[in-house]
Amino acid sequence: MLAAIRATVHCEPDVEITVECNPTSLDAEKARALLDAGVNRLSIGTQSLREDQLKYLGRLHDPNGARAAIEAALTSGMPRVTTDLIFGLPDQTPEDACEQASALADLGLAHLSCYQLTIEPGTQFGELAKRGRLPRADDGVVAEAFLAIDQTLTARGFGHYEISNYARPGEEARHNLGYWRGEEYLGLGCAAFGFMLEGAASASGVRTRNAVDPKKYVAATAAASLLDESTSREPLDAEALLRERIMLGLRLANGFDLGSAGAALGLDAWTDERTREVAKLSARGRLVREDTVLRLPPAAWIWADDTAARLF
Fold it and tell me: Which CATH number does 2-173 carry?
């Protein structure tokens, strides 16, 4: 597949090619095979280094299996390796979250994603939470864990470049940065999402999702009709795109330029109402404004979603 892509479209010599792996499906031999195929970045789904937490999350691997997969990737010659950690689990202390983040960093990783556990509707966790049968962590403890992980990893030389992501210089996830900056992306594969700008001066866009059913997706590709009825389309007007850029741009440590984002969409982003809200949030220490650039101070990242919603 990678060979076909390289033969079809121009790729920069150092193009980022990431493969996501579960610890149960990765060993040194597979890591070397992926490297030989052209992969230069592996993302490993550790999620936790505690046996009881992995069981709560429904994961198939154990802590030793996670460490073994990471070490296999690092020793295979793979240039870049990252893993993810979930915090905010029931009865988890901030100290425990820090210990796990430190342990993963000590393995030699140059990138870590630390996500707060979120309960999505329509999932098994969501149904249990709806019935009041899912143990949940205290919000205050979760916030403490977030700030403690930040302090621990930044002290070790990691840059906290996005709310949930830490990297040593130059190791930031390029594809994720593209999403957070509102860039276009092409979704290839069953159930894959894509995003394209369209309209005059790219002032509108469309989010697509390929057929979820494998048979329908295969039939669509065989007929060379990826954008037919098998693909769902969500039109996004300029206002919707601006809201997304606010929401995603505020996740970045450097923030984003609200004025430029609005101008690119043909909008005046600095409406009187939004300007007043920016002033209020800035006075409360929830937001920093530098000319037309907005960013969140690290201590206010725990309110990122609420801050973004107030600017919609």
Answer: 3.20.20.70
